[in-house]
Amino acid sequence: MQRRKPAVAGLFYEGSKKELLKQVEGCFLAPTGPGQLPRRRWGEKRVPALICPHAGLMYSGPVAAYAYLQLDNYSFPESVVVLGPNHYGIGTIVSIYPGGFWSTPLGDVKIDEKLAGEIAQKREFFFLDEGSHSREHSIEVQLPFLQYVYGDFLFVPICINDQSLETCVEIGEAVAEVVKGRNILLVASTDFTHYEPHDKVIAKDRLALQRIAELDVEGMYRMLEKHGITMCGYGAVAAVLTAAKKLGAEKAVVLKQSTSGETGGDYESVVGYASCLIEIEKT
User: Fold this and answer.
1) What is the pLDDT of residue 37?
2) Alpha carbons within 13 A on the beta-carbon side of 140
3) Which superfamily does CATH assign the domain made up of 3-278 to?
4) What pTM value is reported for the model?
């Protein structure tokens, strides 16, 4: 079966199993992280949706850890759908990886081929293809956290090349149609403002996060344009907010906002990060 090899192992995260486990645990326990490790004891509550950053774990990992720690409070998912932007513009409009496995130093993650196919059938702009994912890191960087928390799980990667409002709302509606009534974890992968001073990034990103907290997709797009917020995965966030709202969510909670300055030490030119939790009521 098709096996996607990691594109950024040894770059965005450690390249060996031992060192990657140590790095992921270090994200949870870092001074800028949540300060505790997941218990990995599952309850009965339906899984939420998450928004997580996707820079190198040495920079954004402690912020991502805030979101992944929350999964302790929920049940084990039937599958995980991770949506991320296509930074390289390679391939199709919206690409769903069709089958096989994705590999990291922590092992293989099996693609949920059935769920991938069900989503792909919902809209004409969905394509089942592998090439769009070949170099992209935004989805891959979520896997070490998911593997650490869940061990073995099923997975659907959705790589978004067209992040227009119209397309991403349709993506979210299609995903909601398929996962309604099922226990599927949705993850939107994004970083926020890029390469501005720390204080300015915090202030600008807070404007976008206020709209995200209200599940206000159109308002988020307006904030991005009005204030020049260079958020790279805004379409993935729009899709997940749309899906979550369709599934019964009423708000998002910002768990942590930070920048690369707090982990890298350079406060003059930083990238903004945030982790958010979206509770989804049982449907």
Assistant:
1) 98
2) 27
3) LigB-like (3.40.830.10)
4) 0.97
